[in-house]
Design goal:
Layout (H helix, E strand, L loop, with lengths): L1 H72 L8 H26 L17 H23 L1 H5 L4 H29 L10 H32 L6
Length: 234
C-alpha cells in the first residue's frame, strides 16, 4: 500500500513538469502568433497611404482652383475677356453709326434720298448742327470706348466708360429730336420736305430715327457697364 502511494506520487511529480512545459510552449506559440498578427497589421497600415495617395493628390490638384475662386471673390484683379470683347464690338458700331449719322445729309441725296431737298455735299448750318456735329462726337465717343477696352480687360476703367456712354446717348437723342427742335430754335420751316407717308418715314429713319435710336441703345449699354463697375460703399 505504501509502495503504491509512493509510485503515484512519483508519477504525479513527473507529470506536473510536463504539464507546465506544455503550457509554456502554448503561451510561446500564442505570443508568436500574436506578434505575426501585429506585424501584419503594421505592414497593412504602412501600405495603406499609397492607395489613398491619388485621392490626396487629386485633392491637392483641386486646391489651386478653389484658391483661385476664393482669391477672385476677395477682389483680386482678374482678366475680363467676355465683357471687353462685347464692349469692343459696341464701340466699333458706335463709330460706324455715328459716321453714317454725320454724313447722311451729304451722301443720301446721291442715293435719291434727299430728306431736306438739298443736294449732296451742301455745307450749311442745319447740316452741320443737326447731323455733322453729333455724328463726329459719337465717332469720338466710340473711339474712346475702344480705348477703354484694355482697361476693361483688367477689370478697371468702367466709371470713365459710363461717362462716355452718356455722351453717346446724348448724341443719339439729338439725332432724334434735333430736326423737330430746329424749327423752334430757328423759327424756320420744317427740316424735312413734304413727301408721301412711306417716303417721309424712310427719310426720318435714314436721317434721324435710325442712327439716333441705335446710338441711344449703345450708349445705354456702355453706361450699364460703367454703372456695374462703380466701387460699392463699404
Amino acid at each position: 500500500m505504501v509502495e503504491h502511494s509512493a509510485q503515484d506520487t512519483t508519477l504525479q511529480e513527473r507529470a506536473e513538469p510536463a504539464t507546465s512545459t506544455h503550457e509554456v510552449q502554448n503561451r510561446r506559440v500564442a505570443r508568436e502568433e500574436g506578434g505575426r498578427h501585429r506585424r501584419g497589421r503594421a505592414r497593412f497600415s504602412t501600405a495603406a497611404p499609397p492607395t489613398s495617395a491619388p485621392t490626396d493628390a487629386g485633392a491637392s490638384r483641386t486646391e489651386p482652383g478653389i484658391a483661385a475662386v476664393g482669391a477672385r471673390g476677395a477682389g483680386v484683379p482678374r482678366t475680363v475677356t467676355g465683357p471687353a470683347g462685347r464692349l469692343a464690338a459696341v464701340g466699333t458700331w458706335i463709330v460706324v453709326v455715328g459716321a453714317w449719322g454725320g454724313l447722311a445729309p451729304f451722301l443720301a441725296p446721291a442715293l435719291g434720298l434727299s430728306a431736306d431737298g438739298r443736294p449732296s455735299w451742301l455745307w450749311d448750318l442745319p447740316h452741320a448742327l443737326l447731323w455733322l456735329v453729333p455724328g463726329a462726337v459719337a465717332c469720338l465717343a466710340g473711339a474712346a470706348v475702344l480705348g477703354h477696352v484694355p482697361a476693361t480687360r483688367r477689370g478697371r476703367g468702367r466709371v470713365g466708360t459710363g461717362a462716355v456712354g452718356l455722351v453717346v446717348l446724348a448724341c443719339g437723342a439729338w439725332f432724334v429730336i434735333g430736326p423737330s427742335a430746329w424749327t423752334i430754335l430757328k423759327t424756320s420751316a420744317a427740316v424735312f420736305v413734304p413727301a408721301d407717308p412711306l417716303r417721309a418715314l424712310v427719310y426720318r429713319v435714314v436721317y434721324s430715327y435710325g442712327p439716333g435710336l441705335v446710338l441711344v441703345l449703345f450708349g445705354g449699354l456702355v453706361m450699364g457697364w460703367g454703372w456695374r463697375g462703380r466701387p460699392r460703399p463699404a
